[in-house]
Design goal:
Blueprint: H1 2-14, H2 20-42, H3 55-64, H4 71-75, H5 77-87, H6 92-119, H7 125-133, H8 135-144, H9 154-165
Helix pairs in contact: 2-8, 5-6, 6-7, 6-9, 7-8
Amino acid sequence: MDELIAVHELIMETGGGSPVLYFLIGFLMLIGITGQWMLYYKCDLPGYACVVPVWNVTTFLKIVGRPAWQSLIVIVPPPIIVWGVLFSGGSTLGYGLAAVFAVIWAGYMAKVYYELCICFGRTKTSDYLICLALNGFYVLWLGLADSTTYQGNFEEAKKKQLEEAA
């Protein structure tokens, strides 16, 4: 509990003692929830799944055709990374674990977002880069834009693209 209080105090000091940072975090969460809800709706999945922990990850992975057990790759590393950076007391082991899990997690998430772009027919390099840089906003755009349609999971979408190219 002392660690959480220390993080809160750090946030309050960084924000000049005002709750602006908390409002910013809340705003970004609202964008993420809205984006996922609309994306799930477009894929004929229940939108409310985006607000249920763990189910939102498995539903998101279902869109790209990944098995549910791979949600562990998404869920487990972030707490280990936070512990290694903030709460390990500056130990080499903590930083090392954080770095290893960060590389694994970032690589996996980059691949999932690449596959998400393919599932919606977005094949340009600029689409991938924008998706990686602004993923919450990009997911919101995929969900809200009339120009995007869900083409099935990654394998189905890739097959459709190959058939259209031939």
